[in-house]
Amino acid sequence: MIYQILNENEVVELEKELRKTLPGTAKIYYVIRSFVNGNLQGYEVLVDNWPSWSCIILRPHSERQVPRYFSHTYMCHSKSVTALKYFIQRPGVINWEEPVTFTGLPNDIIPVITELSRKHGATVTSKESRFMYCWTKPEPPPLPQIPDDICLGTLEQKHVETMKTDWESTSYREDLEGYFSGVVQNFDSSCVTDKKGNLLAYICMQYNGAMAMLYIRPEFRQCGYFNILLSDLTRKRLAKTEVAYAFIPVQDTQLIKLAREFGFEWVPEGNMTWIRYNPPAQPNRLSNVTKTVEAKSSNLEDCLNHFKINAIPLTTL
């Protein structure tokens, strides 16, 4: 068997299986959950073998149906790097003639895809790997006292345009407004507004279940909104018996420190990276260029001022 495309019942069975191994499988479990709930239009679920699988790939079966913000995006999970190495090279699994953004990959797979790109005369761009940090305690974090001059609530569609403006200079996704509209409609969030309804700070979910995109307006970044938002969204997730987790760049020691002080713990099996594969513009292109986007070093104040917890959809290259 080269690969198997799962039918609807098999995908539901896979979802149940992945839930048993949370939190380590959270990033693929919630992607599968999004697929089952109809939030990943145009995708299909592949495994290397069924029911004894080692690798999972969600890939577009129709780019016309896939939202622009997920164009050419393959969402991956594997029980071993070796299994994934051979699976992605099986005929028909990956269309190497088209651009591909791989998400959810173990860091050790980067050399494999880099070597494959050389064979195809392609280029590869990789992003700094992420640690998975998760709330593992049985009790939720305490919610800080909310100042009288603000309101704690949930993001709404009226906030989407503001969110787009906040992130358009740092995101490589197409149709950022459409992306945020889907996030606000389908997933949990938390926001702080003033008494007039002006959006001061917020955090939202991603399609892979991660908490991300925490943004605080510059003039309010010393007001304690970081802990308020992270506590509120974590509590919302735990109240639904869901996993509360986030991705943090491996070299961002200040953000890792903040996460640990808050109470999050590292989940090694949840670590991941992103790779962008670009086919050659011309036939027989021989050179390959590999670039790694490095996180900017910063002190604690800079960490807060530019704080964002990155996850699959908005950190691809």
Description:
With 317 residues, the chain is α+β, with helices and mostly antiparallel strands. The chain has 2 domains: 4-130 and 271-293, Gcn5-related N-acetyltransferase (GNAT) (Aminopeptidase, 3-Layer(aba) Sandwich); 150-268 and 300-305, Aminopeptidase (3-Layer(aba) Sandwich), CATH 3.40.630. Helices cover 29% and strands 24% of the residues. It has helices spanning 8-19, 26-36, 81-87, 110-120, 160-167, 176-186, 225-239, 253-262, 300-305; strands at 4-5, 43-47, 55-60, 73-78, 100-105, 123-127, 130-134, 150-153, 189-194, 199-205, 211-216, 245-249, 265-266, 273-278, 290-293. An 8-stranded mixed beta sheet has the order 1-2-3-4-5-14-6-15, with helices on both faces. It has a 4-stranded antiparallel beta sheet with strand order 8-9-10-11, sandwiched between helices. It has a 3-stranded antiparallel beta sheet with strand order 12-7-13, with helices on one face. A hairpin with a 4-residue loop joins strand 9 (189-194) and strand 10 (199-205). The longest helix has 15 residues, at 225-239. Mean pLDDT is 88; it is low at 284-317.
Helix content: 25-40%
Total beta strands: 15
Number of domains: 2
**Uncertain spans:** 284-317
Q: Can you name the CATH architecture of the largest domain? A: 3-Layer(aba) Sandwich
Any idea of the CATH class of the largest domain? Alpha Beta
Query: CATH superfamily membership of the largest domain, which one?
Result: Gcn5-related N-acetyltransferase (GNAT)
Mean pLDDT over the residues: 88
The third-level CATH topology of the largest domain is Aminopeptidase
Order of helices and strands: EHHEEEHEHEEEHHEEEHEHEEEH
**Spatial sequence of strands, sheet with the most strands:** 1-2-3-4-5-14-6-15
Largest sheet: 8 strands, mixed
Q: Cα distance, first to last residue?
A: 33 Å
> Radius of gyration, rounded?
20 Å
* Secondary structure tally, helices: 9
User: What is the structural class?
Assistant: alpha+beta
Large-scale geometry: globular
What share of the residues does DSSP label as strand, in percent?
A: 15-25%
